[in-house]
Design a protein that fits this description.
Helices cover 12% and strands 39% of the residues. The chain is mainly beta. The chain has a five-stranded antiparallel beta sheet with strand order 1-8-7-6-5, with no helix packed on it. InterPro entries: SCF_F-box_component.
């Protein structure tokens, strides 16, 4: 493994640097207008970031980086495949809101291109953005040092495949039987096998994976297909949503630390896969001047913001602050 070289490219982005109020969450959306758009759902502020003009590259995935609560800046990362003189490279492009219009490039040489599975978005942890490959290996980009490395496939995967075998996945899960996420401030891997669910965590000091939990498989449907997926909430052990056939309701399984098992704690209505959890952040969006936004882009942005706002619960912080104040007053 080796770190990648760095280069610089400038995009044709034209945007002002007017800073809005604190942002609640950041959303990235690829759209048919050949731009990325970073949203602030509460204020409606947004920044349009044109695609890089690199036709040789095949874009595979994008990620958004926010150092909550330590920074009011954000970074956009894209990853592509490229072949040069029979050599294979992953090419990362890094856009920072601190340097408007500037893209940084980092390359990582590889022996093979392996797909990045659907339903497992990149994970940001300890200054690095992690991209899961479908074989269980992980591409890691240090967004501060601007270096990329490949984390090898965990050895425990081969052990469980040989012992118990992999399973076929249902059509609506798009072949997903492995996920990467962040749980209890650890990079965490969830793998589904015929008999077991295996949860592994990555030790950055030793650069090794270890199995933290081996569970009886409770995410299989009557036909033997996977009908569940993990839900990542950073302060907790990974949870699971499992569809309840023949309905579209989902059972929520959470880890009970007192008895060291997963328990069904709630039933939810229809949910979409993959499910994303959003976190509050202080990052600010650099507003794009309306002179550079077309009517079609404005309509697209308005539609996206309307959809996102449906998931925002207003007044939560106010209620908590009032309760805290009442508690202090009565103390």
């Amino acid at each position: 493994m080796r770190n990648g070289n760095r280069e610089e490219e400038r995009s044709g982005l034209s945007a002002s640097v007017e800073m809005p109020d604190d942002i609640f969450m950041d959303i990235i959306s690829r759209w048919p207008l050949k731009c990325y758009c970073v949203f602030n759902p509460l204020t409606g502020e947004h920044q349009l970031i044109p695609y890089l003009n690199s036709p040789r590259n095949e874009l595979k995935k994008t990620g958004l980086v926010v150092d909550y609560p330590n920074s009011d800046q954000y970074k956009l990362v894209t990853i592509s495949n490229i072949v040069e003189n029979s050599n294979l490279f992953y090419k990362f492009h890094l856009f920072s809101s601190e340097q408007s219009g500037l893209w940084r490039e980092i390359q990582l040489r590889t022996n093979s291109f392996i797909s990045l599975p659907y339903g497992s978005p990149p994970v940001y942890l300890h200054d690095s953005l992690y991209f899961l490959r479908s074989d269980g290996s992980v591409l890691a980009l240090d967004t501060k040092k601007e270096e990329a490395v490949l984390i090898d496939r965990p050895e425990f995967i081969d052990h469980f495949v040989l012992s118990y075998g992999k399973i076929l996945t249902s059509r609506d899960m798009s072949g997903s039987d492995i996920w990467l996420g962040r749980a209890k401030d650890l990079l965490t891997l969830v793998c589904i096998f015929r008999k077991y669910i295996v949860i592994g965590t990555y030790d950055r000091t030793s650069s090794c994976w270890r199995v933290s939990h081996t569970l009886d498989n409770f995410v299989l449907g009557p036909d033997g297909n996977i009908i569940g997926f993990p839900v990542w909430i950073d302060s907790k052990q990974v949870s699971f949503l499992v569809r309840r056939p023949p309905t579209q309701h989902h059972d929520l399984y959470e880890y009970d630390t007192n008895i060291n098992v997963y328990k069904n704690v709630a039933v939810l209505d229809t949910v979409d896969y993959p499910m994303y959890c959003f976190h509050p952040t202080l990052a600010c969006v650099h507003k794009t001047s309306s002179n550079y936004v077309t009517t079609a882009q404005q309509a697209y942005i308005a539609e996206k913001l309307d959809n996102i706002r449906r998931f925002i619960i207003e007044g939560t912080n106010t209620s908590e602050e009032e309760a805290a104040a009442a508690g202090e007053g009565g103390g």
